[in-house]
Specification:
mainly alpha
Length: 444
Protein backbone atom coordinates (compact mmCIF):
# COMPACT_ATOMS: atom_id res chain seq x y z
CA UNK A 1 0.00 0.00 0.00
CA UNK A 2 2.95 2.38 0.56
CA UNK A 3 4.40 1.96 -2.93
CA UNK A 4 2.36 3.04 -5.98
CA UNK A 5 1.72 0.19 -8.47
CA UNK A 6 3.89 0.13 -11.58
CA UNK A 7 0.89 0.35 -13.92
CA UNK A 8 -0.25 3.53 -12.18
CA UNK A 9 3.17 5.11 -12.52
CA UNK A 10 3.33 4.15 -16.20
CA UNK A 11 -0.09 5.71 -16.86
CA UNK A 12 0.93 8.96 -15.19
CA UNK A 13 4.28 8.93 -17.02
CA UNK A 14 2.44 8.62 -20.35
CA UNK A 15 0.74 11.96 -19.68
CA UNK A 16 3.98 13.90 -19.02
CA UNK A 17 5.24 14.46 -22.62
CA UNK A 18 1.85 15.69 -23.83
CA UNK A 19 1.40 18.03 -20.87
CA UNK A 20 4.94 19.37 -21.26
CA UNK A 21 4.52 20.07 -24.98
CA UNK A 22 1.11 21.68 -24.44
CA UNK A 23 2.26 23.96 -21.60
CA UNK A 24 5.46 24.93 -23.39
CA UNK A 25 3.63 25.64 -26.64
CA UNK A 26 6.39 23.79 -28.49
CA UNK A 27 5.97 23.00 -32.18
CA UNK A 28 6.60 19.36 -33.09
CA UNK A 29 5.88 17.45 -36.32
CA UNK A 30 2.22 16.50 -36.65
CA UNK A 31 2.73 12.69 -36.55
CA UNK A 32 4.88 13.03 -33.40
CA UNK A 33 2.31 15.35 -31.84
CA UNK A 34 -0.44 12.83 -32.55
CA UNK A 35 1.54 10.15 -30.70
CA UNK A 36 2.47 12.44 -27.80
CA UNK A 37 -0.99 13.87 -27.19
CA UNK A 38 -2.70 10.55 -27.92
CA UNK A 39 -0.46 8.91 -25.33
CA UNK A 40 -1.40 11.58 -22.80
CA UNK A 41 -5.10 10.93 -23.40
CA UNK A 42 -4.60 7.18 -23.05
CA UNK A 43 -2.68 7.59 -19.79
CA UNK A 44 -5.24 10.00 -18.36
CA UNK A 45 -8.08 7.70 -19.36
CA UNK A 46 -6.50 4.82 -17.44
CA UNK A 47 -6.24 7.04 -14.37
CA UNK A 48 -9.89 8.03 -14.80
CA UNK A 49 -10.99 4.41 -15.06
CA UNK A 50 -9.08 3.40 -11.93
CA UNK A 51 -10.49 6.33 -9.97
CA UNK A 52 -14.01 5.48 -11.10
CA UNK A 53 -13.56 1.85 -10.07
CA UNK A 54 -12.31 2.89 -6.63
CA UNK A 55 -15.35 5.17 -6.29
CA UNK A 56 -17.54 2.05 -6.34
CA UNK A 57 -16.74 1.66 -2.65
CA UNK A 58 -18.82 4.75 -1.88
CA UNK A 59 -21.78 4.45 -4.29
CA UNK A 60 -24.33 1.80 -5.24
CA UNK A 61 -23.30 -1.02 -7.55
CA UNK A 62 -25.55 -0.05 -10.46
CA UNK A 63 -24.68 3.63 -10.21
CA UNK A 64 -20.99 2.73 -9.95
CA UNK A 65 -21.10 0.80 -13.22
CA UNK A 66 -22.91 3.68 -14.92
CA UNK A 67 -20.47 6.27 -13.52
CA UNK A 68 -17.52 4.08 -14.51
CA UNK A 69 -18.89 3.73 -18.02
CA UNK A 70 -19.51 7.49 -18.27
CA UNK A 71 -16.09 8.47 -16.99
CA UNK A 72 -14.34 5.88 -19.14
CA UNK A 73 -15.70 7.55 -22.28
CA UNK A 74 -14.84 11.13 -21.21
CA UNK A 75 -11.74 11.13 -23.45
CA UNK A 76 -14.00 10.28 -26.38
CA UNK A 77 -16.31 13.16 -25.41
CA UNK A 78 -13.43 15.61 -25.25
CA UNK A 79 -12.05 14.68 -28.68
CA UNK A 80 -15.47 14.67 -30.33
CA UNK A 81 -16.37 18.01 -28.75
CA UNK A 82 -13.23 19.53 -30.30
CA UNK A 83 -14.26 18.41 -33.78
CA UNK A 84 -17.85 19.58 -33.19
CA UNK A 85 -16.68 22.98 -31.94
CA UNK A 86 -14.53 23.43 -35.04
CA UNK A 87 -17.46 22.38 -37.19
CA UNK A 88 -19.57 25.10 -35.57
CA UNK A 89 -16.88 27.70 -36.21
CA UNK A 90 -16.66 26.58 -39.84
CA UNK A 91 -20.44 26.81 -40.21
CA UNK A 92 -20.44 30.32 -38.76
CA UNK A 93 -17.76 31.41 -41.22
CA UNK A 94 -18.76 29.54 -44.40
CA UNK A 95 -22.35 28.43 -43.90
CA UNK A 96 -23.94 24.98 -43.77
CA UNK A 97 -21.23 23.50 -46.02
CA UNK A 98 -18.73 23.89 -43.14
CA UNK A 99 -15.84 24.61 -45.53
CA UNK A 100 -14.76 27.44 -47.82
CA UNK A 101 -16.30 27.54 -51.32
CA UNK A 102 -14.37 25.21 -53.58
CA UNK A 103 -12.46 23.78 -50.63
CA UNK A 104 -11.25 20.21 -50.75
CA UNK A 105 -11.29 17.57 -48.07
CA UNK A 106 -13.87 16.46 -45.57
CA UNK A 107 -16.17 19.23 -44.23
CA UNK A 108 -15.40 20.11 -40.61
CA UNK A 109 -18.95 19.23 -39.52
CA UNK A 110 -18.59 15.71 -40.91
CA UNK A 111 -15.51 15.04 -38.78
CA UNK A 112 -17.57 15.35 -35.59
CA UNK A 113 -20.03 12.71 -36.74
CA UNK A 114 -17.21 10.54 -38.12
CA UNK A 115 -15.53 10.45 -34.72
CA UNK A 116 -18.78 9.57 -32.97
CA UNK A 117 -19.83 6.80 -35.37
CA UNK A 118 -16.35 5.29 -35.37
CA UNK A 119 -16.23 5.21 -31.56
CA UNK A 120 -19.64 3.57 -31.33
CA UNK A 121 -18.83 0.88 -33.87
CA UNK A 122 -15.43 0.12 -32.32
CA UNK A 123 -17.03 -0.28 -28.90
CA UNK A 124 -19.41 -3.00 -30.15
CA UNK A 125 -17.46 -4.52 -33.04
CA UNK A 126 -14.20 -4.77 -31.09
CA UNK A 127 -14.91 -4.21 -27.38
CA UNK A 128 -17.81 -6.61 -26.88
CA UNK A 129 -16.12 -9.23 -29.04
CA UNK A 130 -12.75 -9.05 -27.28
CA UNK A 131 -14.37 -9.65 -23.90
CA UNK A 132 -16.12 -12.79 -25.18
CA UNK A 133 -12.98 -14.09 -26.90
CA UNK A 134 -10.85 -13.57 -23.78
CA UNK A 135 -13.46 -15.32 -21.64
CA UNK A 136 -13.54 -18.24 -24.08
CA UNK A 137 -9.76 -18.47 -24.18
CA UNK A 138 -9.47 -18.37 -20.39
CA UNK A 139 -12.40 -20.56 -19.32
CA UNK A 140 -13.47 -22.35 -22.53
CA UNK A 141 -16.97 -20.98 -21.99
CA UNK A 142 -18.61 -20.30 -25.33
CA UNK A 143 -20.28 -17.09 -24.28
CA UNK A 144 -20.95 -14.63 -21.46
CA UNK A 145 -24.10 -14.56 -19.38
CA UNK A 146 -25.18 -11.29 -17.79
CA UNK A 147 -27.29 -10.84 -14.69
CA UNK A 148 -30.94 -9.78 -14.77
CA UNK A 149 -29.92 -6.31 -13.58
CA UNK A 150 -28.02 -5.87 -16.86
CA UNK A 151 -31.40 -5.74 -18.56
CA UNK A 152 -31.51 -2.11 -17.40
CA UNK A 153 -28.80 -0.69 -19.70
CA UNK A 154 -29.92 -3.04 -22.49
CA UNK A 155 -33.50 -1.75 -22.32
CA UNK A 156 -32.42 1.88 -22.49
CA UNK A 157 -29.97 1.06 -25.27
CA UNK A 158 -32.91 -0.39 -27.20
CA UNK A 159 -34.88 2.84 -26.84
CA UNK A 160 -31.92 5.00 -27.86
CA UNK A 161 -31.05 2.79 -30.86
CA UNK A 162 -34.60 2.83 -32.18
CA UNK A 163 -34.65 6.62 -31.96
CA UNK A 164 -31.21 6.97 -33.57
CA UNK A 165 -32.46 4.88 -36.49
CA UNK A 166 -34.32 8.00 -37.71
CA UNK A 167 -31.21 10.22 -37.64
CA UNK A 168 -29.89 9.06 -41.05
CA UNK A 169 -33.07 10.38 -42.63
CA UNK A 170 -32.61 13.90 -41.24
CA UNK A 171 -30.58 16.80 -42.62
CA UNK A 172 -29.42 18.08 -39.23
CA UNK A 173 -28.86 16.88 -35.69
CA UNK A 174 -30.94 19.35 -33.69
CA UNK A 175 -31.62 20.41 -30.14
CA UNK A 176 -34.81 18.34 -30.30
CA UNK A 177 -32.59 15.29 -30.68
CA UNK A 178 -30.65 16.58 -27.69
CA UNK A 179 -33.82 16.76 -25.59
CA UNK A 180 -34.86 13.21 -26.46
CA UNK A 181 -31.48 11.52 -26.07
CA UNK A 182 -30.47 13.39 -22.91
CA UNK A 183 -33.88 12.53 -21.43
CA UNK A 184 -33.16 8.86 -22.12
CA UNK A 185 -29.78 9.22 -20.42
CA UNK A 186 -31.27 10.98 -17.39
CA UNK A 187 -33.94 8.30 -17.05
CA UNK A 188 -31.26 5.62 -17.30
CA UNK A 189 -29.10 7.33 -14.68
CA UNK A 190 -32.06 7.63 -12.31
CA UNK A 191 -32.93 3.99 -12.86
CA UNK A 192 -29.45 2.66 -12.09
CA UNK A 193 -29.17 4.94 -9.05
CA UNK A 194 -31.88 2.79 -7.46
CA UNK A 195 -29.59 -0.24 -7.47
CA UNK A 196 -28.65 -1.56 -4.03
CA UNK A 197 -25.12 -1.07 -2.76
CA UNK A 198 -22.70 -3.95 -3.20
CA UNK A 199 -19.12 -4.88 -2.45
CA UNK A 200 -16.98 -4.14 -5.54
CA UNK A 201 -14.20 -6.46 -6.65
CA UNK A 202 -11.29 -4.12 -7.35
CA UNK A 203 -7.98 -5.04 -8.94
CA UNK A 204 -4.67 -3.29 -9.56
CA UNK A 205 -4.37 0.45 -8.85
CA UNK A 206 -8.10 0.78 -8.13
CA UNK A 207 -7.74 -1.81 -5.35
CA UNK A 208 -4.87 0.20 -3.83
CA UNK A 209 -7.04 3.30 -3.73
CA UNK A 210 -10.22 1.49 -2.70
CA UNK A 211 -8.53 -0.09 0.33
CA UNK A 212 -7.54 3.27 1.79
CA UNK A 213 -9.39 4.74 4.74
CA UNK A 214 -12.51 6.76 3.94
CA UNK A 215 -11.05 10.29 3.94
CA UNK A 216 -7.77 9.48 2.10
CA UNK A 217 -9.68 7.31 -0.38
CA UNK A 218 -12.12 10.03 -1.33
CA UNK A 219 -9.38 12.65 -1.47
CA UNK A 220 -7.30 10.39 -3.73
CA UNK A 221 -10.24 9.66 -6.03
CA UNK A 222 -11.06 13.35 -6.37
CA UNK A 223 -7.40 14.17 -6.99
CA UNK A 224 -7.11 11.52 -9.71
CA UNK A 225 -10.27 12.82 -11.35
CA UNK A 226 -8.95 16.39 -11.38
CA UNK A 227 -5.49 15.46 -12.69
CA UNK A 228 -6.78 13.24 -15.49
CA UNK A 229 -9.46 15.77 -16.47
CA UNK A 230 -6.84 18.52 -16.68
CA UNK A 231 -4.61 16.35 -18.88
CA UNK A 232 -7.49 15.52 -21.21
CA UNK A 233 -8.46 19.19 -21.52
CA UNK A 234 -4.86 20.11 -22.38
CA UNK A 235 -4.35 17.29 -24.89
CA UNK A 236 -7.73 16.94 -26.64
CA UNK A 237 -7.53 19.92 -29.01
CA UNK A 238 -3.87 19.51 -30.07
CA UNK A 239 -4.49 15.77 -30.54
CA UNK A 240 -7.41 16.47 -32.86
CA UNK A 241 -5.45 19.09 -34.80
CA UNK A 242 -2.39 16.86 -35.11
CA UNK A 243 -4.52 14.10 -36.63
CA UNK A 244 -5.87 16.47 -39.27
CA UNK A 245 -2.38 17.83 -40.00
CA UNK A 246 -0.96 14.30 -40.21
CA UNK A 247 -3.52 13.41 -42.83
CA UNK A 248 -2.63 16.46 -44.88
CA UNK A 249 1.13 15.87 -44.66
CA UNK A 250 1.10 12.13 -45.34
CA UNK A 251 -1.72 12.10 -47.86
CA UNK A 252 -3.92 10.02 -45.54
CA UNK A 253 -7.64 10.65 -45.45
CA UNK A 254 -8.59 12.97 -42.59
CA UNK A 255 -11.87 11.13 -42.37
CA UNK A 256 -10.06 7.80 -41.87
CA UNK A 257 -7.85 9.17 -39.10
CA UNK A 258 -10.70 10.90 -37.28
CA UNK A 259 -13.16 8.02 -37.57
CA UNK A 260 -10.83 5.18 -36.58
CA UNK A 261 -7.48 6.33 -35.17
CA UNK A 262 -8.81 8.98 -32.77
CA UNK A 263 -11.49 6.67 -31.27
CA UNK A 264 -8.94 3.88 -30.90
CA UNK A 265 -6.80 6.19 -28.76
CA UNK A 266 -9.69 7.47 -26.65
CA UNK A 267 -11.40 4.06 -26.33
CA UNK A 268 -8.22 2.03 -25.73
CA UNK A 269 -8.14 2.36 -21.91
CA UNK A 270 -11.79 1.38 -21.61
CA UNK A 271 -11.29 -1.65 -23.85
CA UNK A 272 -8.11 -2.66 -22.03
CA UNK A 273 -9.73 -2.37 -18.60
CA UNK A 274 -12.68 -4.48 -19.79
CA UNK A 275 -10.24 -6.98 -21.27
CA UNK A 276 -8.39 -7.16 -17.95
CA UNK A 277 -11.66 -7.86 -16.14
CA UNK A 278 -12.44 -10.61 -18.63
CA UNK A 279 -8.94 -12.06 -18.22
CA UNK A 280 -9.56 -12.30 -14.47
CA UNK A 281 -12.90 -14.01 -15.32
CA UNK A 282 -15.04 -11.10 -14.14
CA UNK A 283 -16.79 -11.47 -17.46
CA UNK A 284 -20.22 -10.25 -16.39
CA UNK A 285 -18.78 -7.00 -15.05
CA UNK A 286 -16.62 -6.53 -18.15
CA UNK A 287 -19.43 -6.89 -20.67
CA UNK A 288 -21.89 -5.03 -18.44
CA UNK A 289 -19.58 -2.01 -18.26
CA UNK A 290 -19.20 -1.96 -22.05
CA UNK A 291 -22.97 -2.13 -22.52
CA UNK A 292 -23.32 0.84 -20.15
CA UNK A 293 -20.64 2.70 -22.10
CA UNK A 294 -22.59 2.12 -25.28
CA UNK A 295 -25.68 3.64 -23.62
CA UNK A 296 -23.63 6.71 -22.64
CA UNK A 297 -22.19 7.19 -26.10
CA UNK A 298 -25.47 6.60 -27.91
CA UNK A 299 -27.43 9.00 -25.68
CA UNK A 300 -25.38 11.67 -23.92
CA UNK A 301 -22.56 11.92 -26.46
CA UNK A 302 -24.84 12.11 -29.50
CA UNK A 303 -27.28 14.33 -27.62
CA UNK A 304 -24.72 16.93 -26.57
CA UNK A 305 -23.15 17.40 -30.01
CA UNK A 306 -25.93 19.79 -31.18
CA UNK A 307 -25.42 21.87 -28.02
CA UNK A 308 -21.68 22.23 -28.63
CA UNK A 309 -22.35 23.03 -32.28
CA UNK A 310 -25.01 25.63 -31.42
CA UNK A 311 -22.68 27.44 -29.01
CA UNK A 312 -19.71 27.48 -31.38
CA UNK A 313 -21.76 28.40 -34.48
CA UNK A 314 -23.93 30.91 -32.57
CA UNK A 315 -26.97 29.56 -34.30
CA UNK A 316 -29.81 27.10 -33.90
CA UNK A 317 -29.85 25.42 -37.30
CA UNK A 318 -28.41 22.16 -35.99
CA UNK A 319 -25.33 20.09 -36.83
CA UNK A 320 -25.49 19.35 -40.58
CA UNK A 321 -25.63 15.70 -41.59
CA UNK A 322 -23.83 15.36 -44.91
CA UNK A 323 -25.12 12.68 -47.35
CA UNK A 324 -21.99 10.58 -46.72
CA UNK A 325 -22.60 10.73 -42.97
CA UNK A 326 -26.16 9.44 -43.30
CA UNK A 327 -24.81 6.07 -44.38
CA UNK A 328 -22.39 6.08 -41.43
CA UNK A 329 -25.23 6.87 -39.00
CA UNK A 330 -27.45 4.20 -40.53
CA UNK A 331 -24.71 1.59 -40.24
CA UNK A 332 -24.02 2.55 -36.62
CA UNK A 333 -27.70 2.32 -35.66
CA UNK A 334 -28.08 -0.98 -37.51
CA UNK A 335 -25.07 -2.45 -35.71
CA UNK A 336 -26.54 -1.37 -32.36
CA UNK A 337 -29.85 -3.07 -33.09
CA UNK A 338 -28.16 -6.32 -34.09
CA UNK A 339 -26.02 -6.24 -30.94
CA UNK A 340 -29.16 -5.76 -28.83
CA UNK A 341 -30.93 -8.62 -30.61
CA UNK A 342 -27.97 -10.93 -30.01
CA UNK A 343 -28.01 -10.00 -26.30
CA UNK A 344 -31.69 -10.80 -25.83
CA UNK A 345 -31.77 -13.44 -23.16
CA UNK A 346 -28.79 -11.64 -21.57
CA UNK A 347 -26.29 -14.02 -23.14
CA UNK A 348 -23.73 -13.16 -25.80
CA UNK A 349 -22.44 -16.38 -27.34
CA UNK A 350 -19.07 -16.90 -28.99
CA UNK A 351 -20.78 -17.38 -32.35
CA UNK A 352 -22.73 -14.13 -31.95
CA UNK A 353 -19.52 -12.29 -31.04
CA UNK A 354 -17.81 -13.64 -34.15
CA UNK A 355 -20.75 -12.41 -36.25
CA UNK A 356 -20.29 -8.90 -34.83
CA UNK A 357 -16.56 -9.04 -35.48
CA UNK A 358 -16.97 -10.39 -39.02
CA UNK A 359 -19.46 -7.73 -40.03
CA UNK A 360 -17.29 -5.03 -38.46
CA UNK A 361 -14.29 -6.13 -40.53
CA UNK A 362 -16.31 -6.54 -43.73
CA UNK A 363 -16.74 -2.76 -44.02
CA UNK A 364 -12.96 -2.33 -44.33
CA UNK A 365 -12.66 -5.12 -46.89
CA UNK A 366 -15.42 -3.59 -49.01
CA UNK A 367 -13.89 -0.11 -48.68
CA UNK A 368 -10.55 -1.48 -49.93
CA UNK A 369 -12.02 -3.48 -52.81
CA UNK A 370 -14.82 -1.27 -54.13
CA UNK A 371 -14.20 2.04 -55.91
CA UNK A 372 -14.75 5.21 -53.90
CA UNK A 373 -17.97 6.07 -55.76
CA UNK A 374 -19.59 2.91 -54.40
CA UNK A 375 -18.82 3.77 -50.76
CA UNK A 376 -22.30 5.09 -49.92
CA UNK A 377 -23.95 2.07 -51.49
CA UNK A 378 -21.65 -0.22 -49.54
CA UNK A 379 -22.72 1.39 -46.26
CA UNK A 380 -26.40 1.06 -47.09
CA UNK A 381 -26.03 -2.56 -48.22
CA UNK A 382 -24.14 -3.52 -45.07
CA UNK A 383 -26.73 -1.69 -42.97
CA UNK A 384 -29.48 -3.74 -44.60
CA UNK A 385 -27.58 -6.93 -43.70
CA UNK A 386 -27.28 -5.78 -40.08
CA UNK A 387 -30.97 -4.87 -39.90
CA UNK A 388 -32.10 -8.11 -41.55
CA UNK A 389 -30.05 -10.16 -39.09
CA UNK A 390 -31.39 -8.07 -36.21
CA UNK A 391 -34.99 -8.72 -37.25
CA UNK A 392 -34.41 -12.46 -37.73
CA UNK A 393 -32.61 -12.73 -34.38
CA UNK A 394 -35.28 -10.73 -32.55
CA UNK A 395 -38.00 -12.98 -33.98
CA UNK A 396 -36.11 -16.09 -32.90
CA UNK A 397 -35.64 -14.62 -29.41
CA UNK A 398 -39.05 -12.96 -29.21
CA UNK A 399 -39.81 -14.75 -25.94
CA UNK A 400 -36.98 -12.75 -24.35
CA UNK A 401 -37.92 -9.28 -25.60
CA UNK A 402 -40.81 -8.39 -23.28
CA UNK A 403 -39.14 -9.84 -20.14
CA UNK A 404 -35.98 -7.86 -20.93
CA UNK A 405 -37.87 -4.60 -21.36
CA UNK A 406 -39.98 -5.26 -18.26
CA UNK A 407 -36.93 -6.04 -16.14
CA UNK A 408 -35.00 -3.11 -17.58
CA UNK A 409 -37.69 -0.46 -17.24
CA UNK A 410 -40.14 -1.53 -14.52
CA UNK A 411 -38.99 -4.33 -12.22
CA UNK A 412 -37.58 -3.21 -8.89
CA UNK A 413 -33.86 -3.80 -8.47
CA UNK A 414 -34.55 -5.88 -5.37
CA UNK A 415 -36.45 -8.31 -7.61
CA UNK A 416 -33.70 -8.57 -10.24
CA UNK A 417 -31.64 -11.17 -8.42
CA UNK A 418 -31.24 -14.79 -9.45
CA UNK A 419 -30.64 -16.16 -12.88
CA UNK A 420 -34.04 -16.33 -14.53
CA UNK A 421 -33.69 -16.92 -18.27
CA UNK A 422 -36.01 -17.16 -21.18
CA UNK A 423 -35.41 -19.82 -23.81
CA UNK A 424 -35.26 -19.10 -27.52
CA UNK A 425 -36.13 -22.54 -28.80
CA UNK A 426 -39.55 -23.95 -29.51
CA UNK A 427 -42.05 -23.41 -26.73
CA UNK A 428 -39.98 -20.59 -25.36
CA UNK A 429 -42.91 -18.64 -23.97
CA UNK A 430 -44.30 -21.64 -22.12
CA UNK A 431 -40.89 -22.48 -20.67
CA UNK A 432 -40.42 -18.88 -19.55
CA UNK A 433 -43.74 -18.92 -17.68
CA UNK A 434 -42.87 -22.26 -16.12
CA UNK A 435 -39.50 -21.04 -14.85
CA UNK A 436 -40.97 -17.81 -13.49
CA UNK A 437 -43.71 -19.76 -11.75
CA UNK A 438 -41.16 -22.16 -10.27
CA UNK A 439 -39.04 -19.28 -9.02
CA UNK A 440 -42.01 -17.58 -7.38
CA UNK A 441 -43.03 -20.85 -5.73
CA UNK A 442 -39.49 -21.36 -4.42
CA UNK A 443 -39.56 -17.89 -2.87
CA UNK A 444 -42.81 -18.74 -1.14
Amino acid sequence: MRRPPLSGLLALAATVPGVAVALAGAEVPAPVAALVFGGAIVGAAFVLAWAAEAAQVDVSAGLAVAVLALIAVLPEYSVDFVFTWRGGEAAQQWGAGCRPPGGDGTPACSLALANMTGANRILVGIGWVVVVLIAWRRSKERGITLGRADAVPLAFLTIASLYCLILPFKRTLTLWDTAVLVAVFVAYSWRVSRAPAGEPELIGPSARVGNLAKVPRRATVIGLFLVSAAVILLAAEPFAQSLVDTGQQLGISQFLLVQWVAPLASEAPELLVAGLYAYRLHTTEALGALVSSKVNQWTLLVGTLPVVFAVSSRGWSGLPIEPAQRGELLLTAAQSLLAIALLLGLTLSLRAALVLLGLFLVQFVLAAVLPREYHDGELVALSVVYLALAVVTAIRKRACLVPMLRDGLLTRYTDLGGDLRCTTTGGGRLRLRTRLKAAVSADG
